[in-house]
Amino acid sequence: MKIEIEKLTKLYYTIGEVADMFSVNASLIRFWEKEFAIIQPKKNKKGNRLFTTKDIENFNKIYQLVKINGYTLDGAKKALKSKELINEEVIDTDDKTIVINRLENIKQRLQELKG
Fold first, then answer.
1. Element (H, E) at 51
2. What are the Cα distances from residue 11, in Å, to 2, 39, 53, 113?
3. Which residues partner with 49 through β-bridges?
4. pTM
5. Tens digit of pLDDT for each residue in 67-100?
6. Does the N terminus or the C terminus of the chain have fewer Cβ atoms within 10 A?
């Protein structure tokens, strides 16, 4: 399941709407909000969570890593950190070779600069 962010039209979405998008319980969204710093919904005066399209996009990345690709929560956190450095979409198995090659090239360039 992949949410098409471009089709989201509202400024804010409730936790129930986000849960329905991913067919998960609202409790999972609250749990992942605590576990992953990149999910930071705004809260109204009543304390209800209001998710932006960026929050939904980040939740989608976590969902892809954990539910689709089978990552652990720690593994997903590490993948998201490396994703921020690489500035790429969530990496599937076929793309890992490309990323490894890029990292090896970067390592080689750094070693050349160092030595």
1. strand 49-51
2. 20, 16, 7, 46
3. 43
4. 0.67
5. 988 889 998 898 888 765 444 455 555 566 767 7
6. C
Task: List C-alpha distances in Å: 6 to 3, 30, 32, 78.
Answer: 9, 24, 23, 27
CATH fold for the domain made of 5-114: Multidrug-efflux Transporter Regulator; Chain: A; Domain 2 (1.10.1660)
How many distinct helices (H) and strands (E) make up the chain? 5, 3
Classify the phi-psi angles of 80: left when phi > 0, otherwise alpha if psi is within -120 to 50, otherwise beta: alpha
Q: CA 25 to CA 18: how far, in whole Å?
A: 9
**At which residue do the structure tokens 């450095």 appear?**
85
Domain ranges for the chain: 5-114
Q: Which tokens sit at 24?
A: 């998960």
Tokens standing for residue 9? 């039209």
